[in-house]
Amino acid sequence: MRRRVADLIGTVIGANLPIRVVAYDGSKTGPDDAEVVLRIESPRALARLASAPGTLGLARAYVTGEIEVEGDIYAALDALADVTLNSIKPSEQLRVAAQMLPMWLRYRPAPPDLEARPRGRRHSKSRDSQAIAHHYDVSNTFYEYVLGPSMTYTCARYPTAGSTLEEAQAAKHELIAQKLALAPGMRLLDVGCGWGGMVMHAAAEHGVHALGVTLSRSQAEWAQAEIERRGLDRLAEVRHLDYRDVAESGFDAVSSIGLTEHIGREQLSSYFRFLCGRLRPEGRLLNHCITHPRTLRQRRVDPFIGRYVFPDGQLEPVGQLITEMNNAGFEIRHEENLREHYARTLAAWGANLEENWEAAVAEVGVARARVWRLYMAASRLGFERDNIQLHQMLGVKLGADGRSGFPLCGW
């Protein structure tokens, strides 16, 4: 006898979760008073699960509206976080697969158009440009809805539990400025500068001559216009440029905030060597990036993140990054983990998206808005559960006779 759809999904997610499942065939399972309801709206959802088990199939079904979540999506992901097909007995897996297979054979749904498929040699300049454009050249207006006035798309640093997102982003920029010992008249290179938040902070708050580069044309245009609006064009500049094409050298400091994740492990050594070559002796590098919490034999990016969010992105453990920095010529002076701060940052971005949901959908479409809603909630959970981390690593290019330029204590 063919099993009801809700019972089939219930087999996968478990019988004891606080989630209600309601399916298109009228079947239901789970507690009646559940705060989160998972609605299976179409047999195409089962076809997607059959063709791509795990997060990719679920994401495709959610992005296309074939699965709906009533209630808080973060709460739904939190409840489902420990559910995997590996937790089902092999015999039951076969029965579930057999039930879903006819749906795939009947519908064979194509992947949504939003999936990224960059072409060319991985981490070549051309392919990196495609990957960055996929995520960042979406809509500056959309990002304003999500990020807020700071337009800063990296982990904030919350001085207190009650700090606002804007206060926390300003605190992050100031923390980096302090670690780099920025002072009036110095020269800063900010690689992967986004919408120019660090560049403008360095110029406005510390009188630094700051150059930012980004592969996103939309970011560069927005940032340069904002620099001019604030009257900072005498000190600050943002260029649409690959960091590898920066010709200037002799910088006092380099900041890399959220770029290393896009570099690729095979390019890490040349990446850090290039940054070291842009610095004067006793110049400092602050590398701020998402990391893997442990060293694994096989490191795979979640397929949903790889297809929809950060194509070609790769995460490395902090130990490997420090080793690569050290081998490239940096002495490591300080390191810290801001994992919990990134969870708070993502919660704030998620709240901004929900508050501006209708406007965001009007700007980029419901499918893309769903991608951002899903990935921010999932990433928040990842940081909370220590599946991913955020590290700042401070290094210095030593001068003659091993001089670092650091004070005896502190930065």
Explain this structure:
By secondary structure, the protein is α/β, with parallel strands linked by helices. The chain folds into 2 domains: 5-107, 2-Layer Sandwich (Nonspecific Lipid-transfer Protein, Chain A); 125-402, Vaccinia Virus protein VP39 (Rossmann fold, 3-Layer(aba) Sandwich). It is 45% helix and 17% strand. The protein has 16 helices and 11 strands. The strands form 2 sheets. It has a 7-stranded mixed β-sheet with strand order 7-6-5-8-9-11-10, sandwiched between helices. Strands 2-1-3-4 form a 4-stranded mixed β-sheet. α11 (268-278) crosses α13. The longest helix is centred in the last third of the chain and has 19 residues, at 366-384. It is elongated. The mean pLDDT is 90. One of its GO terms (molecular function) is methyltransferase activity. This is Class I SAM-dependent methyltransferase. InterPro entries: CFA/CMAS, CMAS, SAM-dependent_MTases_sf. Keywords: Lipid metabolism, Methyltransferase, S-adenosyl-L-methionine, Transferase. Pfam families: CMAS.
Instruction: Identify the CATH homologous superfamily of the largest domain.
Output: Vaccinia Virus protein VP39
CATH architecture tag of the largest domain: 3-Layer(aba) Sandwich
Quick one: overall form? Answer: elongated
Mean pLDDT: 90
**Cα distance, first to last residue?**
70 Å
Helix fraction by DSSP (H/I, runs of at least 4): 40-55%
What summary fits the major beta sheet? Answer: 7 strands, mixed
Largest sheet, order of strands side by side? 7-6-5-8-9-11-10
Q: If helices are DSSP runs of H or I spanning 4 or more residues, what is the number of helices? A: 16
Tell me the total number of β-strands.
11
Low-confidence stretches at least 5 residues in length (pLDDT < 50)?
none
Provide the CATH topology of the largest domain.
Rossmann fold
Overall tally of structural domains: 2
- SS class: alpha/beta
CATH class of the largest domain: Alpha Beta
Q: Approximately what portion of the residues adopt beta-strand conformation? A: 15-25%
Rg to the nearest angstrom?
23 Å
Order of helices and strands: HEEEHHEHHHHHEHEHEEHEHHEHHHE
GO molecular function, one term: methyltransferase activity
Family: Belongs to the CFA/CMAS family.
Enzyme class: transferase
EC number: 2.1.1.-
